[in-house]
Design a protein that fits this description.
With 286 residues, the chain is α/β, with parallel strands linked by helices. 29% of the residues lie in helices and 31% in strands. Strands 1, 2, 3, 4, 5, 11, 12, 13, 14 and 15 form a ten-stranded mixed β-sheet that branches. A five-stranded mixed β-sheet has the order 8-7-9-6-10. Helix 9 runs antiparallel to helix 10 (254-264). The longest helix is centred in the last third of the chain and has 11 residues, at 254-264. It comes from Paenibacillus alvei (Bacillus alvei). The record marks 177 as: Essential for prephenate dehydratase activity. It catalyses: prephenate + H(+) = 3-phenylpyruvate + CO2 + H2O. InterPro entries: ACT-like_dom_sf, ACT_dom, Chor_mutase/pphenate_deHydtase, Preph_deHydtase, Preph_deHydtase_CS.
Length: 286
């Protein structure tokens, strides 16, 4: 049984981890994402569950920067899970009158996913960001009769004994989050037809057209890239890494050859992981 670190019980990360691994592993919950990372880096847990991308808000840059700068833990799996957010509180306190809600709390990404709803129905409410949706629900639970509500998951409301005041308040129905499982060794999971490799490429400073050369190394081999994104190296202004998701496992012939070609022009390549990729339609728990 593996020990898997993740954000608090009742968070979207918790729902997503149950979807990936079922109940066959021990979940270790932390309030802060930094503690999730450090738990696995220290060896207190075997894996961490990290949300890294959302269809509405895009990349979670803080988490990606942690993967690059703070820990050395390769990707062992990725999966996509719907982020279904609800307005959570106490029915007896609100009594169906939204003017009784004075404050709404949630994680900033979850809050951003529901802004159309908030502007339409709760424009008067104060907004406060906290470390996770589960933490927001916990705070609301501990502060009755203050007109506070949270944006969070169904499992979070159930965990803390609160009510769903309004279900599915996200602004878009295609609101999915991409999670990665990071750890030092693979976790035993059902087979997946889809395989990915994520690499980090740093371009040489004195090579005009280097990015074009990098992309050409994949293009002429007909290797599909599902994502390419730049982030600052934090070394100096104008210096960037490129995250590249490749829809191919590293144990093929073509991908190592492409990486070798990239390195030949002076690029630095760091492999963040080669791993199975699961879509939401593929239920791992079944």
């Amino acid at each position: 049984m593996a020990r898997i670190a993740l954000l608090p019980e009742g968070s979207v990360s918790h729902e997503a981890a149950l979807h990936l691994a079922g109940k066959d592993h021990q979940f270790v919950h932390y309030k802060l994402i930094s503690d999730v990372f450090l738990s696995t880096a220290r060896g207190d847990s075997d894996y961490s569950v990290i949300p890294i991308e959302n269809t509405i808000e895009g990349s979670v840059n803080l988490h990606m920067d942690w993967i690059v700068h703070e820990v050395d833990l390769p990707f062992q799996a990725e999966w996509v899970y719907p982020s279904i957010q609800n307005l959570v509180g106490r029915q007896k306190e609100v009594q169906g009158d939204w003017s009784n809600i004075q404050k709404i709390m949630s994680h900033p990404v979850a809050m951003a996913q529901c802004m159309q709803y908030i502007r339409t129905y709760l424009p008067h409410a104060e907004l406060e960001h906290v470390s996770s949706t589960a933490e927001a629900i916990r705070i609301v639970k501990q502060n009755p009769d203050r007109g506070w509500a949270a944006i969070g998951t169904t499992i979070g409301a159930q965990t803390h004994g609160l009510d769903i005041l309004a279900p599915k308040v996200t602004d878009h129905q295609n609101n999915f989050t991409r999670f990665v499982l990071i750890g030092k060794k693979p976790l035993q999971l059902p087979p997946s037809a889809a395989q990915k490799t994520t690499i980090l490429v740093t371009l040489p400073e004195d090579f005009p057209g280097a990015l074009h050369q990098v992309l050409s190394a994949f293009a002429w081999r007909r290797i599909n890239l599902s994502r390419i994104e730049s982030r600052p190296t934090k070394r100096k202004l104008g210096s960037y890494y490129f995250y590249i998701d490749v829809e191919m496992a590293l144990d093929t012939v073509l991908l190592p050859a492409a990486i070798e070609e990239i390195e030949a022009i002076g690029c630095q390549v760091r492999i963040l992981g080669t791993y199975p990729s699961y879509s939401y339609e593929f239920s791992l728990a079944d």
